[in-house]
Amino acid sequence: MAEAKTSPSRNPGAAGYSMPAEWEPHKATWLAWPHNPTDWPDKLDTIRWVYGEMVRKITAGERVRLLVSSKSEAKLAARYLTRAGTGVSKVDFIVHPTNRGWTRDSGPLHVRRARGARRQLAIVHFHFNAWAKYVDWKKDRKVPETAAKFLRRKLFHAECGGRRFVLEGGGIEVNGRGTLLTTEECYLHPTVQVRNPGLGRKQYDETFKKYLGVTNVQWLASGPAGDDTHGHIDDICRFVNPTTLVLIREDNRRDPNYKPLAENWERVQDLRLEDGSKPEVVPLPMPAPLTFDGERLPASYANFYISNAAVLVPTFNDPNDRVALGILGELFKDRPVIGIHAVDLVLGFGALHCLTQQEPA
């Protein structure tokens, strides 16, 4: 595997790079084979079959880069995928041991720039630290380095004030035209899961612009109850095209989610896109509360993944499954919207978007 070209302190934004929107064409989707039993207690085998369904849907339109801990795990994964009707002709097995499988947050986050008729891709290393919550993250942190070597791409190391800057892919949402969304709960809380101690809104805004090439940063308030990441935007609010958002809403006033999600609806009225215009905002419902061992799980229809061949939406055996699929089906006219059973998946405090990371074409 070739060495990646690293750029520890250069500014990809100034060099013309920016992060594409998720609905733009992909070359591949990155995943990590599930192996950590603490993420899905007593459900690990079930989760592997969910992966089989995900990979089957994704490889209908692009490759999958699957991180595995060893060649023997690659053989194990291949058996599951083959039995699930997926096959492995469009799967690259990349040996890189991981702590967990949440590739949205630890995987290779790509930026792109145009050079004449060509487009160049690079990867930004955002120094994953397990959401400033867990101690086992050192293997996951190295995933961008492995990806840059595998793809022979430039690797930018994100910094702010001379220190490594920590960010997760699930903590940001972009429309590919210059606007980025995030939440105060995730990155500005003074005491809980503090990723970058001492940094405020101004420093975050500047660093987003430097490393992701955005021009307009907008902040919502907080996320749903049970969110292990403490407020990732991908459980709350998502772009479905450059000018349209879906935003989750809880209508039950007795639910703990009602108040924080209502605050996001108040804030979104003042949200502006990069050109100063107001986006269209479409409400997404919430499923009824899901719990495990007395703990609330972050079940959200906003945690969908936009692949080339389909939009994959988590479903929860809930009457609102049909409502959410219908709303998203009306918004995505260029590809089918498909539900993936996620009741077991969300036991790991994440769903489809949390597990995936796109590699732009």
Description:
- The protein is of the alpha/beta class.
- The chain has a single domain, classed as L-arginine/glycine Amidinotransferase, Chain A (5-stranded Propeller), CATH 3.75.10.
- The chain has helices at 44-58, 71-83, 103-106, 138-141, 143-151, 184-187, 201-212, 258-268, 320-331, 352-355; strands spanning 6-7, 26-32, 63-68, 91-95, 109-115, 118-125, 154-157, 159-160, 163-164, 173-174, 179-183, 216-220, 237-241, 244-248, 280-284, 291-292, 295-296, 305-306, 311-315, 337-341, 357-360.
- A 4-stranded mixed β-sheet has the order 1-7-6-5, covered by helices on one side. A 4-stranded mixed β-sheet has the order 4-3-2-21. It has a 3-stranded mixed β-sheet with strand order 10-11-12.
- Strand 13 and strand 14 (244-248) form a beta hairpin.
- The longest helix is centred in the first third of the chain and has 15 residues, at 44-58.
- The two termini are 21 Å apart.
- The mean pLDDT is 95.
How are the secondary structure elements laid out?
Elements: E1 6-7, E2 26-32, H1 44-58, E3 63-68, H2 71-83, E4 91-95, H3 103-106, E5 109-115, E6 118-125, H4 138-141, H5 143-151, E7 154-157, E8 159-160, E9 163-164, E10 173-174, E11 179-183, H6 184-187, H7 201-212, E12 216-220, E13 237-241, E14 244-248, H8 258-268, E15 280-284, E16 291-292, E17 295-296, E18 305-306, E19 311-315, H9 320-331, E20 337-341, H10 352-355, E21 357-360
Parallel strand pairs: 1-7, 2-3, 3-4, 6-7, 11-12, 14-15, 19-20
Antiparallel strand pairs: 2-21, 5-6, 8-9, 10-11, 13-14, 16-17, 18-19
Helix pairs in contact: 1-2
